[in-house]
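Chain X:
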Amino acid sequence: MRFGFTLPNNMGVTDPDEVAGVAVDCERLGFDSVWVAHHVLNIGYVRERLGERPYHDALTILTWAAAKTHRVELGTSVLVLPYLHPATLAKQLATIDHLSQGRLLVGVGVGSLPEENAALGVTYEDRGPLTDEFLAVMTALWAPGATTVNGTRWPMHDVVSSPKPFRSPHPPILIGGNRPPALRRAARWQGWHPMRLPPQSMATRLVLVDAELAAAGRSREDGFRVHACLDLDLWPQPRDRPPRAPMHGTTEQLRDTVGQYREIGVTDLVLSAMSPAALQAGPSRLVDQLEHFAAEVMRPERA
């Protein structure tokens, strides 16, 4: 199993260099990947958590992390495609893929914050079809040569997007989301990147993913990535407050949880720190927690 960590670009840290610097620590500790979260506005539950504190731009932080690291994969967890434009994003991602020498992973989703859609002028109800067309346009722009796209939202005739991605035909595209449309969409691409699902819930949904893959003549054995994205909360919690995420508890409990995900076929465990204690502690304390997890859970899992 591979292990990743989501950089705290969404945690109100003032200095963006300090956020990207966590990627260096993750690489030093043996993590396989680092990730960035994406929202455009502090609105809805994002504003409730951060107020006016910074939510740093996902791709800018990922670019800075690419410059500071040499080995870890660099992922988006996840880009909300309805807020973006496929031609602009195709160029940005291809550039990051070249800067990182092919270490990019493209996690995408439809979004789940109606207030943000409304503020940005994007219809919330159409976000699924929009996402499908977005991916079709973006991958067409990444294909060799000029591209003509007869799309509903982004028709293009004889256009060239350059650079093409470093990795051919393009970086792996991983679909976020827990509902059947997201599972069907994931089976059309290179992986599934759901948020905060316990092992049994993932196993149930993987039945549908496997059926969709089989219908397309594929299987998870073909390199399909299955990610479990979970909050890692090693800070002490009040006794009257239940654990807020599966990755919580003693070292033995953490090891057992990792084993449960491994047994159902999870290829990557992507951790984040979203607890109020993590929000207050800052990146330096966060790295202390990652040191503990790497030593007590990650390395024994690989032994």
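Chain Y:
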Amino acid sequence: MKFIDVTLRDGGHQHNFNWPLEFVERYLVSINSFKEIEFVELGYWKQSGKFDGPFYSIEEKLLSSICKMTKKKLSIMVDYHYCSHNVEDFPSNINFNELGLIRVCLRKEDVIEGCKFVRELKKYTNCKLSINFFNITNYNHDDLEFACEAAKNSNSDFMYFADTHGGLDLGKNLEMFKHFTKLIKDIGMIPGLHLHDHSGKAYFNYRNLSSAGFDATDVSLGGLGKGLGNLKLEHVFDLRGREHILNHLILDQGLFHMPSGPYGVLTARDSITDHYAVEAERKGISPSQFATRLEGIVGSSKDNYDSKLLTNE
């Protein structure tokens, strides 16, 4: 199983992607003892509009500084829908030797063009590339077939599915994913699954990854990540002799704060983006009221937050 540490990238959602550099350096030193982790993902490359923190818009100067902090191979992510489509705007492995992987998130409407972009990006950057299809619990069988077919000529190294809403039950969907992981391997890519823990199934799903044919997954310390978080690094690896990684949860506990309310459980159940959960908690909507309002959220609004759907009107 190949592992990517997404503590810094996905965990950035909890505090505006504004990591102190001294913490980043200490964390990279700590993670060096985890030989199982192939890449450490830092954040997003030159994206804007959603967050102001520097790790949501990593540029050459910041990447250069971080490359000097670690011997680990690094990864960055971009959301194709919002990123530059000019490959010359991206960093090359020739200029940044520690940069080993670029992951490109694709929405349903961007699959064809996004796969073409990944092919060009790989040629220009000389990095490994991963196509990440997110909101996977709202993909049906035909959607998944289409995604795999479109990815055939992308020359990508990984093809990831992301349980973005945190409601996946891999036990119930084992046979379907066996079919698609075989397809992905036949294409010549490594199949991966990014697990969220909104419904408490992340570790259960992790234990079923190999049976479903997946060869890669993501972990984060303390489960830090978007919404109610990810598969926990400390649940996956034997920490004997490496307990120092847990020190960050105490010494840096202000950076590892995670919401624990009930709202994300409801959005996970209905495969709806947890942006609604965040807003429901902020607005003081009770969970029972929130559950009723979720009944009216259908179609693309399940994956794309629409503020009007939580109003009292």
